[in-house]
Amino acid sequence: MVSDQGSSLPSSPKPAPSKELTTRILSAVVMIALALLTAYWGGWPFALFWLAAGVAIMVEWTDMTGVEPRRLVQAILGSGLGVLTLLFLTDASFGLFVAACLVFLAASIVLTKGAQKRWAASSFLYASLIVLVPPIVRDHLELGILGLLWMFAVVWATDIAAYFTGRTFGGPKLYPAISPKKTWSGFIGGVVAAALGGVLVAWGGEKYGLSLPFGLLGTAVISIVASIASQIGDLGESALKRHCNVKDSSHLIPGHGGVMDRLDGFWAVCFIVAAVLLTVHFTT
What we know:
The chain is mainly α and 284 residues long. The chain folds into 2 domains: 22-139, no CATH class; 142-245, no CATH class. Helices cover 76% and strands 3% of the residues. It is built from 9 helices and 2 strands, in the order H-H-H-H-H-H-E-E-H-H-H. The chain has a two-stranded antiparallel ribbon. A hairpin with a 3-residue loop joins strand 1 and strand 2. The longest helix has 30 residues, at 215-244. The radius of gyration is 21 Å and the shape is globular. Mean pLDDT is 91; it is low at 1-15.
């Protein structure tokens, strides 16, 4: 038996737990800077930024779910997302958007078989919200860049606060069957931070002559709803990854996994915003 002191092979030190966190923070800073810079520019740069995000999400979704013939389907659906961006930038009618969606959905369904038809179609619909909603909000007369900043603030505040309060306080798990690390303390911390972040954006906007159509109290309420939706979106993506038996949607973003991993909560907020905008569109 050889003692530890006499061993010629020293045990390798465990990696510092802060290294992963540092990578995660640096990646987040780069992504936030890109999102804010393109939001400031608006127009083509902003639309193309979200087109790239949507295409990445579609590719990750179809890769995870094993859609075949994969590259052909991805090429067709990626082209469809590009067409949606082009229609938006050329101020096309709502009917043309619907027609374009139907054409590319039909193409993806024809090319695939069985359950893969649903996965291919759902990847396109899921990615379409990411491609279209942020640019629509950016150009919206009543929402504009302040509405977009509100969406960013709510999702980022939720993610950051849920991560750190969950790690700090621990406690009962939120939904261990789907995501064993998430806790109720993190969920509550995320909701509180989102309400504060949303109100701060609205209050700061008023100082510069901008306003959201909800008022400060309404902004707090809808920020809470959006935070809950964001965390449900996160759980939904975790459920999909469990179904596909993968840890991350891809390894594109250091410390975060894939684009879906980073935008699952933002997608849920986009869904709510899209539903509200469509309701207002068809009732006025």
